Amino acid sequence: MHRPLVITEDQELLDDLLRVAAAAGVEIDVAHAARHARPYWNQAPLIVVGADTADALAATGPPARPGVLLVTRAPEDATVWRRCVAVGAQAVLELPGAERRLVDELAEAAEPVPRAGHTVCVVGGSGGAGASVLATALGLAASRRGLRTLLVDADPLGGGLDVLLGQEHATGARWPDIVEREGRVSFTALKEALPTVGELTVLSWHRGGAPPIPPEAMRAVLEAAQRGCDLVIVDLPRHIGPPAAEALARAGTTLLLVAAEVRGVLSASQMLLELTRHTSQVRTVLRDGDLAPDVIANCLGVPSAGVLPGQRGVTEALNRGEAPPLGDRTPLGRFCARFLGSLESR
């Protein structure tokens, strides 16, 4: 994949641009003279031209193209707009004031072809319903189908989805390393920073104290993931605070896992009231139990994504640090296959 190109002979400006590129998580190519830019001109996804080289670059007669920006550290330069036109730039960015926009432009240019990933939130209607196991199973099943998937652990008190995957010792960033991020984030840089199992990338927690997730950080992560993934799965806590609300606002589907017993349904009905404040795309997943699915559906009044039968061996596998069994003949595997198939058929 081609990288953004910077053209400048000004070392101080180049230092600033390298710092901005690092903030965007992007590697860049550098042409230290206008004549060195020609081989990169048509391939680079974004070209950043220093005002110091604009006249020399214009003299080479570069062909017109989109994605050219002129940057300057001299806001009082009356000739900057003439230079902008001469090189065919779409905008002039004055540093340091325009650094945030330049970070966003670089991050966007370095992204692969956008995938418009579908976001699925998973939440338990009552404590211990098995929402984290279901979220993990869906993430694994999706990755085995070749879908680029991000599994987001949004519950700081849930014990860690990396533990369910047997990856608690995997190297890579966790939420405490991400919480300061805001604005546009490159999914390429995010994927490289996080632990990955095949096509499944995981954002979970360190052991120990868990700092709150700022809603801005959740927004930045999910927006990056929706650009770079086929599927984003978010395991939500039962308390819907600002970061969970951010996830629900971006969800194409929210699965509410309901235990098929009286207290489980009553608890799920209360959870449903909270969820519908933030999203209208709620579907229930019913656990096997004493109450019939049609009775539960009538009580809750939202569509069902299916019944999830009990499955032997799941708890034992998790306690051994192994991923839950997802074979095609297992109840969990069959449910995941049906649900993912329903998303692909949309």
- Rg calculated over all Cα atoms: 24 Å
Total of domains: 2
Average pLDDT value?
A: 88
CATH architect. name of the largest domain:
3-Layer(aba) Sandwich
Strand order of the largest sheet: 8-9-7-10-6-11-12-13
Total strand segments = 13
State the share of residues found in helices, binned by percent.
Answer: 25-40%
Name the shape in a single word. Answer: elongated
Domain Rv3660c-like CheY-like N-terminal: 7-114
GO molecular function: ATP binding; ATP hydrolysis activity
Organism: Sphaerisporangium rufum
Protein name: Septum formation initiator
How would you describe this protein?
This protein has 346 residues and is α/β, with parallel strands linked by helices. It folds into 2 domains: 5-110, Rossmann fold, CATH 3.40.50; 118-344, P-loop containing nucleotide triphosphate hydrolases (Rossmann fold, 3-Layer(aba) Sandwich), CATH 3.40.50. The protein is built from 14 helices and 13 strands. The longest helix is centred in the N-terminal third of the chain and has 14 residues, at 11-24. The protein starts with a strand and ends with a helix. Pfam families: CbiA (PF01656), Rv3660c_N (PF26563).
